[in-house]
Write a structure and sequence with these properties.
The chain is an all-alpha fold and 232 residues long. The chain has helices at residues 3-9, 11-36, 43-54, 58-88, 100-127, 151-159, 162-189, 198-224, and strands spanning 139-141, 147-149. The protein has eight helices and two strands. The protein has a two-stranded antiparallel ribbon with strand order 1-2.
């Protein structure tokens, strides 16, 4: 059997793939947050950044395909893991068994599902721009004279809708919760978690995820509070 086949078929291999794809997606959401935080700077910054990404052309599509493959593998393995855990759980004849591992994986499955639904909504909202065709036409002229898409205006108009902003905040809250558990189990799978480091790593994961949540939530809150507004 080839290496990829054995990775998918052994339980250790599946755990490794789950951790590796999780690590890639963790890197993406962190990088995406750093890019989005530029909305707090003059509009030139985030619009130039969006333009730089778009000008990667085929390279951007390769990155998108790679990320999509990671999402598919991560979700596929998560479904398998949930089914395996369910099958291994003893028959409970009306008695509730609260085993830490199954509780954590149940929470991971549920928060993961909401994050997946959020990604679909988010792509329809900001990337396909369903219901907002004007967001594809708004342009911004950079200091060097280049006309680019006005992402700053799209973000301000998008988050001016209270319902949309509340949904984003709830979704990033659940994503942060998902990440907090995911980071610890990823480090465990990759062999980086041991007796000496456990408490420190768990504290790091919780602190990181609080930071991740608060910084993400700050964007819609700043728009609703009038701190980030439409530029002239
Ligand atoms: C407040 C939080 C967020 C803001 C303000 C935000 C903003 C944006 C913006 C402006 C775009 C670009 C759309 C365009 O090309 O016009 C985008 C794309 C995207 N976002 Fe987010 N995002 C947020 C959170 C997230 C989260 C938590 C995830 C993943 C779980 C995510 C996943 C994506 C993906 C997959 C794309 C498409 C990238 C591409 O096609 O190149 N975003 N986001």
């Amino acid at each position: 059997m080839n290496l990829l086949g054995s990775l998918f078929s052994s339980s250790l291999g599946r755990k490794f793939l789950m951790a590796a794809t999780g690590l890639v997606l963790f890197g993406f959401v962190t990088g995406h947050l750093l890019g989005n935080l530029q909305v707090f700077l003059p509009p030139e910054k985030i619009n130039a950044y969006g333009h730089m990404l778009e000008s990667l052309g085929a390279g951007l599509w390769l990155i998108r395909l790679f990320l999509l493959a990671c999402v598919v593998i991560h979700v596929w393995l998560a479904i398998q893991l949930t089914l395996e855990n369910r099958a291994a759980r003893p028959q409970d004849y009306g008695v509730t068994h609260t085993n830490r591992a199954t509780l954590a994986s149940r929470v991971m499955a549920r928060t993961g599902l909401v994050v997946l639904a959020f990604i679909l909504f988010h792509l329809a909202h900001f990337t396909v721009r369903i219901g907002h065709p004007q967001w594809s036409e708004h342009t911004f002229t950079l200091l060097n004279g280049t006309k680019v898409r006005d992402i700053h205006t799209m973000m301000v108009q998008g988050f001016s809708n209270v319902g949309v902003s509340v949904f984003y905040i709830i979704a990033v809250g659940l994503l942060s919760y998902h990440l907090a558990h995911g980071i610890v189990s990823m480090l465990q799978t990759l062999g980086l978690k041991n007796e000496k480091w456990t408490l420190g790593l768990e504290r790091f994961a919780v602190a990181y995820c609080w930071g991740y949540f608060l910084l993400n939530a700050a964007i819609p809150v700043a728009v609703l509070g009038g701190l980030v507004k439409l530029h002239a």
